[in-house]
Amino acid sequence: MSHKIGVMRLSMLFLVVLTLVVGCVTKEAKLVGVWKAEPVKAVSSPNLGDVVKSSMLGLVTQNLEIEFNKDGAFKFGAGIASGTGKYTWEGDTVVLTFNTLAPQTPLRLRFEGEDLVEATEFQSDAKLRFKRKK
């Protein structure tokens, strides 16, 4: 009887590990490829910071593309500006750290359906949205 319980526990452990591994592979596979930024429209808000951010994002996103590889690296380009960086996962959020000399805040993106969307503190914040290109 105890042999059957041991086999059942081992089977359950195997299923849990398999589920976690498949979940990570699926998340990674969904990310790898080229993503194009959607235009960000300027917002009307009593908060000047919201207006400025949406206007600046509107300029930046005109030709912005990010390409993720399976090894945790990405490259981006927007017209004449380009660069590289590394990405990591924090739960369901992909965290992009850019290779620059100046300190910067990492960019956090989450899947919303098939899109990658910037994770922001407030729902009303202007945010980057990417659609899969390739």
Oligomeric organization of the protein chains: single chain
Number of strands: 8
Overall 3D form = globular
CATH-level-2 architecture of the largest domain: Beta Barrel
What is the count of distinct domains?
2
Q: Approximately how much helix is present in the residues? A: 25-40%
CATH topology of the largest domain: Lipocalin
Structural class: alpha+beta
Main pleated-sheet profile: 8 strands, antiparallel, barrel
Low-confidence parts lasting 5 or more residues at pLDDT below 50?
A: 13-23
Could you tell me the strand content as a percent range?
Answer: 25-35%
Short description:
By secondary structure, the chain is of the alpha+beta class. It has two helices and eight strands; from the N terminus they run αβαβββββββ.
